[in-house]
């Protein structure tokens, strides 16, 4: 399954020009921090999610939908601090979830801190599901875990050092929490069959944020929230005009669906 996810991610990222900054596949969901130079993130997510679902159904002999019907959580990271926090959170997620003591122990598909701005992670095509005669599925693909563009001035070594410190802090917090719960039965993923599916209902998310600015950045948060409200107001007005038949109405910058599927006029700024 890890092999399948790595290959699917490598192919989808290469196909749509997505830059991978961090990723970690958990048992029920996948965390990623990516950069989208071409503005095609929805296409990338569709391709990646569809391929992973196809492999899961085959490898785990599952029927029906693999992913839930909720909209994918996509959060725009607006500050360097937000990027650092999300990369650290992604890599430390198995620890935060209480599954392993140390982040590097997680056996699922993930990158290590030392993989950032390092050699490419090469992945061969799985022997199942992918037609070797289909040019869409190359015999080998690769994942280049890149330094986030917003952190280019910081440098690779400093960035790795900061992420390492944050991940270690999460490990220490998780260990303290585990010591307080020694009486609880220790979770052992080896006792759970990979062919079983959860039967309990997953609680709905109370919040589905669309942007992040990092902890304590109230001024940046207020500015981002104001910009988002302005965008949504402008979008609703433009959509109302479109529904009345005005095909020359201009949608605000950032509009994707109407531009991609209806060739709507979208504002561009220098």
Overall pLDDT level: 90
Any low-confidence stretches, pLDDT <50, length ≥5? Answer: none
Strand line-up across the major sheet: 1-2
Number of beta strands: 8
Strand content: 5-15%
Sheet of most strands: 2 strands, antiparallel
In helices, the fraction of residues equals 40-55%
**Helical/strand content category:** alpha/beta
Rg on CA atoms, Å: 21 Å
SSE arrangement, N to C = HEEHEHEEHEHEHE
Please work out how many helical segments DSSP would assign. Answer: 6
* Shape annotation: globular
Distance between the termini: 44 Å
Structural notes for this entry:
40% of the residues lie in helices and 11% in strands. It has helices at 2-16, 41-59, 80-96, 156-180, 218-243, 257-262, and strands at 19-25, 30-35, 76-77, 121-124, 140-143, 211-212, 250-251, 265-266. The strands form four sheets. Strands 1-2 form a two-stranded antiparallel ribbon. A two-stranded parallel ribbon has the order 3-6. Strand 1 (19-25) and strand 2 (30-35) form a beta hairpin.
In short:
Helices cover 40% and strands 11% of the residues.
What's the structural blueprint in terms of helices and strands?
Elements: H1 2-16, E1 19-25, E2 30-35, H2 41-59, E3 76-77, H3 80-96, E4 121-124, E5 140-143, H4 156-180, E6 211-212, H5 218-243, E7 250-251, H6 257-262, E8 265-266
Parallel strand pairs: 3-6, 7-8
Antiparallel strand pairs: 1-2, 4-5
Helix pairs in contact: 1-2, 3-4
């Amino acid at each position: 399954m890890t092999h399948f996810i790595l290959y699917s991610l490598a192919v989808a990222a290469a196909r749509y020009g997505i830059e991978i900054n961090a990723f970690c596949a958990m048992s029920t969901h996948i965390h990623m921090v990516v950069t989208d130079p071409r503005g095609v993130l929805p296409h990338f997510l569709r391709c990646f999610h569809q391929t992973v679902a196809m492999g899961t159904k085959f490898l785990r002999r599952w029927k029906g939908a693999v992913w839930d019907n909720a909209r994918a959580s996509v959060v725009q990271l607006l500050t360097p601090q937000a990027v650092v926090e999300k990369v650290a959170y992604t890599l430390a997620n198995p620890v935060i979830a209480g599954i392993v003591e140390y982040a590097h122990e997680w056996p699922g598909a993930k990158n290590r801190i030392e993989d950032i701005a390092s050699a490419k992670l090469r992945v061969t095509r799985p022997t199942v599901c992918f037609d070797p005669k289909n040019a869409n599925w190359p015999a080998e693909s690769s994942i280049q875990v890149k330094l986030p563009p917003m952190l280019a001035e910081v440098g690779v070594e400093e960035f790795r050092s900061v992420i390492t410190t944050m991940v270690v802090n999460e490990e220490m917090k998780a260990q303290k929490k585990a010591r307080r719960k020694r009486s609880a039965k220790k979770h052992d993923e080896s006792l759970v069959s990979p062919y079983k599916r959860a039967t309990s209902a997953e609680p709905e998310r109370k919040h589905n944020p669309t942007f992040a600015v990092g902890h304590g950045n109230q001024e940046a948060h207020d500015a981002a929230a104001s910009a988002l409200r302005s965008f949504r107001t402008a979008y609703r007005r433009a959509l109302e005009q479109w529904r009345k038949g005005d095909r020359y109405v201009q949608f605000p910058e950032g509009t994707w669906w109407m531009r991609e599927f209806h060739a709507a006029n979208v504002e561009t700024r220098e």
